[in-house]
Amino acid sequence: MVRWLREPLPMLDDLSARYGTAFSIKVPRLPQPMVFFSDPAAVKQIWSGDPEDLRAGEANVILRSVLGGNSLLLLDGARHLRERRLMLPPFHGERMKAYGTAMRDATMRELERWPIGKTISFAESMQSITLEVIMRTIFGVGEEAKLAPLRDALVRWTTLGTSRIGTAMLLLVPPDQAERLQRFARSGLGRLLPWAPLVSAQQETDRLVRELIAARRVEDTTGREDVLSMLLAARDERGQRMTDDELRDEMLTMLVAGHETTATTLAWTIHHLLEHPAWLAKVRAQLAEVVGDRPVEPGDLERLTLLDATIKETLRLTPIIPLVARRVAKPMTIGGYDLPVGAIAMASIYLVHRRADLWPDPTRFDPMRFVGAKIDPTHYFPFGGGTRRCLGMAFANYEMKVVLATVLSRVQLGAAPGPRIKVVRRGITLAPSDGMPVVVTRRGA
């Protein structure tokens, strides 16, 4: 567990080299093994298996103390299907594209704050942009004064939650015990515990989200297209609406997952482009041809094929999570191996993305792999697969293209002096070290 916390990717490389395309790990807090698969045939079995037998929500139970038991990530069966149907409309089609201008404008405001010739944390700047975007998407525009306290509380919570102690609490402490420790930290001597500030920040975030939900329930939401208003108006097939607890958990899920993961991928993309200046020049040339000197428009994105391929190759080489998990609910055979009830079947994103038989010269950064290519979903799955593929995938891809197109067309960046960038753990995600420092060398029009 110590090695899994400190260097998960070298650990996966070593185990794969020693044991091949399937191996298991026993950890102290799980009665059954975690079984990792990197054979596409086994991945296909996981994607196509009955969701009642391969339960994603139960495999994500470590997130319960953070997101709550009603989060889409922790639900299975009929409840998961109900919540997914209710939450799908805001993140697809024209509704999603309507957020493009807000994404671009948030990026341009952030760029104006970047000093010339000084080192900045690119990851931190991207977190500011993606947090503003997801908050506007969820709660709507015109709410800036009301949202400022929530933004501050959320930043404190995610900063503490991805620290060493926050990561250890998440990955090492069983969910039931974590919830007891949280309750203890909120009272008496518990406030002196090292994780008490994390619990306090989470409690404050929770309070503010609930206040926003309560206020919106009594407002006239006619014509509003923010996610919260749409979910308040939504009804399932039985005419039932979402409860406050369900809304709270889904709001937190979108706030946390909707900005931290996207910001990390944006940082990794810039890292790869700065390490490969020839490819950066190609992306810039296409941007100049499509966009020119004007602001990026949502209609430009389909023509930015090289930028799209760059993001895809970034997610292949440096996925923000290394695996997708399912808990086995009945004895079954996957990849030729018999798994007992309770085993956690892992489709290993990292290992599949680096198979030499699927990706020639797999450690080389080569976005041309994705230009005009149709990719097998068992060979490439940075957003998961099957019926549990990330609900926000299209939204995240769209946002990343808008943000990167704006950044690359408005400023010139250079790598900051210092140690080479490496992979570090931030909670369950894998991020570039030191916040991905860069230097702004020139500002465009």
Produce a short descriptive summary.
The chain is α+β, with helices and mostly antiparallel strands and about 450 residues long. It is built from 19 helices and 12 strands. Helix content is about 50%, strand content about 10%.
Question: What would you note in describing this structure?
Answer:
With 445 residues, the chain is of the alpha+beta class. The chain has one domain: Cytochrome P450 (Cytochrome p450), CATH 1.10.630.10. It is built from 19 helices and 12 strands. The protein has helices at 2-6, 8-19, 40-48, 56-59, 64-67, 77-87, 93-97, 100-112, 122-139, 144-161, 164-172, 175-185, 196-217, 227-233, 244-275, 277-290, 305-317, 349-352, 393-410; strands at 22-25, 34-37, 54-55, 119-121, 324-328, 332-334, 337-339, 344-347, 411-415, 423-426, 429-432, 437-443. The strands form 4 sheets. It has a 5-stranded mixed sheet, with helices on both faces. Strands 4-12-9 form a 3-stranded antiparallel sheet. The longest helix has 32 residues, at 244-275. The radius of gyration is 22 Å and the shape is globular. It starts with a helix and ends with a strand. The model has no long low-confidence stretch (mean pLDDT 92).
